Amino acid sequence: MSTHLDKFSSATSLLTGFVLCIALSNGIVATSDKPNIIIIMADDLGFDDVSFRGSNNFLTPNIDALAYSGVILNNLYVAPMCTPSRAALLTGKYPINTGMQHYVIVNDQPWGLPLNETTMAEIFRENGYRTSLLGKWHLGLSQRNFTPTERGFDRHLGYLGAYVDYYTQSYEQQNKGYNGHDFRDSLKSTHDHVGHYVTDLLTDAAVKEIEDHGSKNSSQPLFLLLNHLAPHAANDDDPMQAPAEEVSRFEYISNKTHRYYAAMVSRLDKSVGSVIDALARQEMLQNSIILFLSDNGGPTQGQHSTTASNYPLRGQKNSPWEGALRSSAAIWSTEFERLGSVWKQQIYIGDLLPTLAAAAGISPDPALHLDGLNLWSALKYGYESVEREIVHVIDEDVAEPHLSYTRGKWKVISGTTNQGLYDGWLGHRETSEVDPRAVEYEELVRNTSVWLQLQQVSFGERNISELRDQSRIECPDPATGVKPCLPLEGPCLFDIEADPCERSNLYAEYQNSTIFLDLWSRIQQFAKQAHPPNNKPGDPNCDPRFYHNEWTWWQDEKASSSGTIGVMKVFTLLVVFIFTSSCIN
Ligand SMILES: *[C@@H]1O[C@H](CO)[C@@H](O)[C@H](O)[C@H]1NC(C)=O
Ligand SMILES: *[C@@H]1O[C@H](CO)[C@@H](O)[C@H](O)[C@H]1NC(C)=O
Ligand SMILES: *[C@@H]1O[C@H](CO)[C@@H](O)[C@H](O)[C@H]1NC(C)=O
Ligand SMILES: *[C@@H]1O[C@H](CO)[C@@H](O)[C@H](O)[C@H]1NC(C)=O
Ligand SMILES: *[C@@H]1O[C@H](CO)[C@@H](O)[C@H](O)[C@H]1NC(C)=O
Ligand SMILES: *[C@@H]1O[C@H](CO)[C@@H](O)[C@H](O)[C@H]1NC(C)=O
């Protein structure tokens, strides 16, 4: 009897397999076997500025719904600033190995991600993907060859430089008096979106990209990188910008800067909702991997500060501390065995390339010498086994040399940025001003279409309060007598598992131990092999005034139309000459 059944069931499965095969080869099952990869990256979002970690100051119900439905990446490490972080994402390498480790590309500087580096977009495109970048680039604009559609993206709608005004899409470099429009549809400058709030227009573009893709019922998988401007500050003349109706939802926040920040984040949260809705409408969810992250920690104080909070972590953007390096992130895919969990494995932003490639059955060429690890199966099955080594920063800049390195629970810091001005615990969790929606927080999250759509394709009970609790960062009360870390005076050693807030410096106890000495020699080895920084000083030929007030690949323009610039320069000189001589007279 049992053999009978076995025969019957194996015959059935054979038959099913056969039918499935026919279905696949006839394109009846329209989706390809490669998943769509949708990455939504925030710019300068604080670690505590998503509400799934427990803050009720302003809520992010869509991001939270994604997080609770998927896997919360509780230890995703990024680079401390935009350019190095984006370089690591797209190359799968440490910035020290591509020369992208020092600071960021300022718009007037003629450098970019080296042209001999292979990008994630190139790898996915070679493997049959449509590749689309919406929003920020920041990996070079001085030459046309540096720009996204020359680096593996089929399309780019967005800006090439550091940031833009949320409405005019122009960038002002105040120290040099340069001001120009920076927004393109692939290579062509477009003014069609002037007056349209950038977060919304990038969201609309992402929705349209998904709809176009879905309506073609394409067997070509989609690689979509949605690099938001939000919630980065805009130009210094008007840094905090959000639509009035969004700001009005946060009237309970008395500080105006913070109220605008909440509105900027809230609009970003809506974007996550719209993108997931579009994927659902096109029946693409089932076969998509959706990742949300920030490029680096938030700037609480100083340049481009937005009131972002990395609570309870130490430091902020552009520093060696956890507040610069940890990103609040979540990922979702029907492939995951443990949806609705908090994954504690340390994962580096450079791991995403090999990990997502593995998800798509792509094996990157070993000749690329990636620093990133393929953590796909650990992520898929939800285990934590790899002791990750991460070179966060080794910056031998003469003015501010500093390094930050982790292996497992050990973290070494030496030197810092801004003379240590932003080395404290800068962010806090505001509890006196509470989002009125917080009283029905769980219902709010469960009411989002993100929740409903993701439940529909990956049904499962989720204990929201438990997940919210598990993603909280616990820091021990600073015990009396702990040695503070003064990174300008000497190296510091932390056990970041026990002390993620970097309060107790264990260097004095461990300085002669093999634990520390091994870490230190490893750091020296990385430093010795580091690619020299690609940074170059500003080039006055970039001035948008020479190019119809556009930021453009001036090194090519100069070569092709040096006549115009020449004439402009002679003219300027002449004016200066006349002006000076008339003054002297
Ligand atoms: C790119 O060129 C630089 C400088 O010649 C070199 O140091 C680096 O190793 C090269 N990178 C790759 C991926 O070939
Ligand atoms: C709002 O908060 C920021 C950061 O704490 C502070 O610098 C600023 O002065 C505050 N603004 C007002 C109007 O209180
Ligand atoms: C794509 O094609 C499949 C099979 O023909 C069909 O079931 C599905 O509804 C189509 N999707 C769209 C968005 O047209
Ligand atoms: C959730 O949705 C239901 C039905 O639309 C509505 O009655 C309820 O007020 C919503 N709750 C929240 C907290 O938004
Ligand atoms: C959710 O988890 C919390 C804390 O672990 C527990 O007290 C509560 O009973 C759980 N709720 C449900 C519905 O299982
Ligand atoms: C480590 O070695 C230095 C120099 O030899 C010595 O001064 C210091 O006391 C030692 N520290 C410990 C904790 O053993």
UniProtKB/TrEMBL annotation:
Belongs to the sulfatase family. It is an enzyme of class 3 (hydrolase). It comes from the Eukaryota. One of its GO terms (molecular function) is N-acetylgalactosamine-4-sulfatase activity. This is Uncharacterized protein, isoform B. Its cofactor is Ca(2+). CDD domains: 4-S. One of its GO terms (biological process) is defense response to bacterium. Keywords: Calcium, Glycoprotein, Hydrolase, Metal-binding, Signal. Transmembrane segments: none annotated.
